[in-house]
Specification:
Blueprint (H helix, E strand, L loop, with lengths): L1 H16 L4 E5 L4 E9 L3 E5 L8 E5 L3 E5 L5 E3 L15 E2 L14 E2 L15 E6 H5 L2 E10 L3 E10 L9 H6 L1 E15 L7 E21 L6 E21 L4 E15 L3 E3 L5 E3 L4 E12 L1
Antiparallel strand pairs: 1-2, 1-5, 2-3, 3-4, 5-6, 7-8, 9-10, 9-18, 10-11, 11-12, 12-13, 13-14, 14-15, 15-18, 16-17
Length: 296
């Protein structure tokens, strides 16, 4: 299971390294891949990232809205550019000319529509840490990747340093002696109905795997219990609801609650006072998050 944990963090590092070039955002809405070499009071000098030994290009700072560097840092050049416009096509309607002297209608040109550039939705990746898990002795990292500002994928991985099970897994602690959580791994998909607000609601599905250890009673001779360390696991599917707060273009935090049920796990049985057994494997599963993240 350590391979699953290692693969998750390798995936996060690969996602970060994939953005190894700078990007210039122009006032016309274009993205210009570049390797910035110098910024002075009037111009920006850059090279083609595919030909770093080639010529150095120069562009005026008045034509650039911001620079997104390869390490995720964003530098705003023009916070409120006056000539930002999306890429559009000018429509020209011309009535056929009957003769050289008669034109039945003048040429009409549709004006270009100007819209402000939303700096808070330029970065589609976020790496965050779950502060609630940290308070419980877990170090849990989450990676979110947005697609078209409507859908996002979430990957999580965490390791527990807590000597006992947390409160949300109390039923496992009740069924298994000295139960101790080892690590979490999960993946989810989310949908955002309103994609251009600074506070963004999302709903989705989260699948989560948890590995833990416990002490299994193997002998009760002379009323002396002997234990053997055993490994166990839990798989759950949950519905997530949450909010993402876009504080700045790079700093975000999100809160969420996921509730669902176990679909497969190590059996959880307890013996009641009357000698009967109760199965706790069907108890609901919950996962909470309060995450501080860096968007890049």
């Amino acid at each position: 299971m350590r391979l699953i944990h290692l693969a998750f963090f390798t995936f996060c590092l690969s996602a970060i390294s994939a953005y190894s070039q700078d990007v210039l955002y122009t006032i016309t809405g274009n993205k210009l891949p570049a390797k910035v070499v110098e910024i002075n009071s009037n111009d920006i000098k850059y090279k083609d990232p595919k030909n770093l030994d080639g010529p150095t290009y120069v562009i005026s700072k008045t034509d650039i809205v911001l620079i997104q560097y390869y390490n995720g840092f964003t530098e705003v050049i023009n916070a409120n550019p006056t000539t930002i416009s999306p890429k559009t096509v000018e429509f020209v309607n011309i009535t056929p000319v009957k003769s050289i002297d008669t034109v039945t209608a003048p040429v009409r040109v549709k004006p270009l529509e100007k819209k402000p550039l939303n700096l808070y939705y330029l970065n589609n990746n976020m790496l965050s840490i779950n502060a609630l898990a940290l308070a419980n002795g877990d170090i849990t990292l989450m990676y979110d990747r947005d697609f078209n500002n409507k859908l996002s994928l979430t990957f999580l991985g965490g390791y527990s340093f807590n000597a006992h099970m947390g409160g949300l897994n109390g039923f496992i602690r009740e069924a298994k002696d000295n139960a101790k959580k080892k690590f979490d791994a999960g993946v989810g998909i989310n949908f955002m109905p309103n994609s251009k607000r600074r506070v963004q609601y999302f709903v989705g599905i989260l699948g989560k795997y948890m590995a833990y250890d416990y002490q299994n009673v193997i002998d009760t001779t002379n009323n002396q219990k002997k234990y053997k360390k055993e490994k166990a696991y839990q798989v759950a599917i949950m519905i997530s609801n949450g909010l993402i707060f876009k504080v700045t273009p790079n700093f975000n935090f999100k809160v969420f609650i996921s509730v669902g049920g176990q679909i497969n796990s190590t059996p959880l049985e307890v013996i009641n006072s009357d000698g009967t057994k109760s199965n706790l494997s069907n108890y609901p599963k919950a996962y909470l998050g309060y995450c501080f993240g860096y968007r890049f």
